[in-house]
């Protein structure tokens, strides 16, 4: 299944919180930590769930710092390792 990928940097202390929130939104996206020390994570958004995932991410941005990251080759390689 082809998913939409978004690389985002957050405060690393919020990674577990984000994972729990996404798990509560069953099936719209999965999350993978790409680089823990920098707080870089990867959201893989399920096809057809883009609007719902964007809404969840916008709501979360009100609570925690989140910024989009342009993935370098290293991040792209790590995102395919699992």
Automatic annotation (TrEMBL):
Pfam families associated with the record: DUF4911 (PF16256)
Lineage: Bacteria, Pseudomonadati, Thermodesulfobacteriota, Desulfobacteria, Desulfobacterales
Organism: Desulfococcus multivorans DSM 2059
Record-linked InterPro entries: DUF4911
Protein name per its UniProtKB record: DUF4911 domain-containing protein
């Amino acid at each position: 299944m082809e998913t939409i990928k978004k690389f985002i940097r957050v405060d690393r202390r919020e990674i577990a919180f984000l994972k729990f929130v996404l798990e509560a939104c069953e099936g719209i996206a999965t999350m993978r930590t790409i680089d823990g020390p920098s707080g870089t994570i990867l959201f893989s958004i399920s096809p057809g769930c883009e609007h719902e995932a964007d809404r969840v991410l916008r709501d979360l941005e009100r609570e925690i710092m989140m910024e989009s990251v342009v993935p370098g080759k290293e991040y792209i390689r790590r995102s395919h390792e699992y």
